[in-house]
Every structure is written in structure tokens, then in C-alpha cells.
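re the bet — no i am not wrong, look at it urself. input seq straight from the record:
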Amino acid sequence: MLIDGKQMHIQIEKGDIGRYVILPGDPGRCEKIARYFDRPQQIAQNREYTLWTGQLDGTPVAVCSTGIGGPSAAIALEELVECGADTFIRVGTSGGIVDEVHGGDLVIATAAIRQEGTSREYLPIEFPAAADFSVVAALREAAVQLGLTHHIGVIQSKDSFYGEIRPAQQPIAGELVAKWKAWKAAGALTSEMETAALFIVAQVLHVRCGAVLNVLWNADNDDAPSIPPDAAERGVRAAVEALRILIREDRA
């Protein structure tokens, strides 16, 4: 859907961006991420969507915020694909689930538990929300090169932030707690709100998507006081380096 030639929500048109896009949730983080680019420039801002462009190794790249949750993230991805992008890395924050994931760690998602509603509007719940393998591999290589503590595996996506933070206050407390225990017993690494929707929409649109998540605390261990001051920046560094790796591979 176009308005004056521009996408309805992100307010850009085909040709404004290249293939590669980093997807944070918070619009306020777009400029900070764009500082890693050569020739950074803000090109649009509307609602929860802020877009900056630039270059990495001479290749056009962009950063676009998605807002909170699956619905707005899906809209961003749909419209970015309409404008020519085909490779996406979500950079977000999360709360660790299993005990070995701590504040300051990175989690590279191979797949996401679909405990949210947006992805059900695209595919039946039986279809897995899986990351693109090439993006996972690039993120792993980037984390190793940068010397960042990281974990690789399944994460959880949900719609209710406070349903995780204080489930006992919800009328369905028993269900929420039981599912959390199940995710933890199975080894789910961390919890957030957008990745499952992004993976499913990317699958439907036949584009590449991965996710690297900054762990701000462990939701069960409450280790927030130990969070390093640069914790939220580590995922950004990994995502930028992963894009460089993907750009080199695509050129080859």
C-alpha cells in the first residue's frame, strides 16, 4: 500500500535502501547503530519507524526500528522487502531463561517459540519460526571474532512483557508459569517479543532473517546489578560485523 509513492508506515520507497537491514526495536537506537556505518543519514521517521542508511565496505545498508512486539515488526519487514531489502538482522534486548545465560551475554537465535499472535496470521502454529542458517553462521563468526560471550539456540517470543515479569498477577498465572518451566526445562535461552514474528514473515516472503539478542538480566536469577555498561552495544557490534561477513560472502 503506497501513499504518494511511499510505503504507508515506514515512509520510504524502492531505491531508498539496499539489501541489508538491521532491525532494533527502539527508534532511539537507530542513530547509535548508524554511527557504525559510513555516510550515515536519516531518511525517514514515522510512528515507531525510524530509518537511517549508510554503507559498509561500499555496500548500502540500513537500520530500521520496529517498535515493540510482533505486529509492528511484521509491518516493518513487509514494507522493507517491498523496497528491495532481503537480508535482516534483529538486534534486541531480552531476559535470560536458562541459568547459564547471564546479563551481558549475547544469544544468537536459531529458532523462536511462537508464544505470540502475529505469526499465526501468516502460518499455522505447526510451522517452526526458524532463522536463516547463513545469518546464524555469520552472527556466530562475528561473536567469536569480537570475543563476545554468546549462546546459540532456541529463544521464546511472547506478546506480554508483564506476563513474563509478574505472571502471578495475571488471571492465567498457572498457564504462564507452567509454560515458562517447560521452556526452561527444554533449554530455551532467553525471552523477548519480536523474533518469532520476524522469522515467520521472512519465511513467507522468502528472505533471510536472523537475530542477536543482548541479555540484560536473567529473569529467574535477577542478576541485573551485574550487567556490564556496554551490554546493549554488544549485539550491535555483532550485527554490524555479521553484515560485513554476509556482504563478503554474497560478493563471492
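see?? The first strand starts at residue 2 and ends at 3. told u. also The chain has a mean pLDDT of 95. so pay up
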